[in-house]
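Reminder to self: tokens first, then the designed residues, so the page reads top to bottom the way the pipeline ran.
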């Protein structure tokens, strides 16, 4: 994530967040990052700046969060970054956790994207194992979903499943496998995402509100 002065915040999977200056100087690990579960595909994953970073200094992370007794899953904390001279992440709070937590170390997804209205999209994998991958079609589960929340973790009133008592209101779209790439189209402002295809190849989607993107199932990925 590029800071306004041209420096970068860079995540390292074992759980380190570093500041890299515009001329390439790599700083020490920044204190304040929560403990991560870095087994297999897990660890400290994405980093994004709040749209109002210049005023509020808020930074958002995604990571695989350890759970009590073994189950774990993606979580999104935010904290305030102190000035570059002695960077620290302070006042850290978790604003989102994928539910349910499960025993799997793969397919966390975890991309973070802010849209032009200030909503935060979080791309979530279905955690790979056959025993629970079908939850990508279950609106009562966060597995295999893209969720859309406000920066404080609250749910926008116009999310597609608000008012549906059998669905989690954070859900924007479902039927995703492992969305690991996401960005806004610079012309339209729409979210685009990439994920593992059903049987070979990868898939590119423009997730519509309430859209179902088919996993598990389907013949091949789309391009």
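Designed residues (223 positions):
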């Amino acid at each position: 994530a590029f800071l306004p002065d041209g420096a970068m915040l860079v995540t390292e999977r074992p759980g380190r967040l570093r500041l890299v200056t515009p001329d390439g100087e790599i700083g020490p690990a920044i204190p304040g990052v929560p403990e991560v579960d870095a087994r297999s595909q897990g660890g400290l994953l994405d980093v994004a700046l709040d749209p109002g970073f210049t005023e509020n200094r808020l930074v958002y992370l995604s990571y695989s969060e350890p759970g009590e007794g073994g189950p774990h899953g993606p979580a999104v904390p935010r904290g305030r970054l102190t000035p570059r001279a002695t960077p620290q992440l302070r006042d850290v709070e978790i604003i989102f956790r994928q539910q349910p937590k499960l025993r799997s170390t793969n397919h966390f997804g975890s991309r973070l994207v802010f849209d032009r209205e200030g909503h935060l999209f979080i791309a979530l994998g279905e955690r790979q194992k056959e025993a629970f991958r079908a939850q990508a079609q279950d609106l009562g589960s966060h597995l295999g979903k893209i969720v859309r929340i406000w920066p404080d973790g609250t749910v926008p009133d116009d999310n597609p499943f608000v008012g549906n008592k059998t669905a989690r209101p954070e859900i924007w779209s479902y039927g995703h496998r492992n969305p690991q790439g996401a960005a806004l189209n610079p012309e339209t402002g729409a979210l685009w995402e990439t994920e593992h295809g059903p049987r070979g190849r990868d898939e590119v989607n423009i997730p519509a509100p309430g859209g179902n993107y088919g996993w598990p199932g389907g013949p091949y990925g789309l391009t």
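The helical segments are 53-56.
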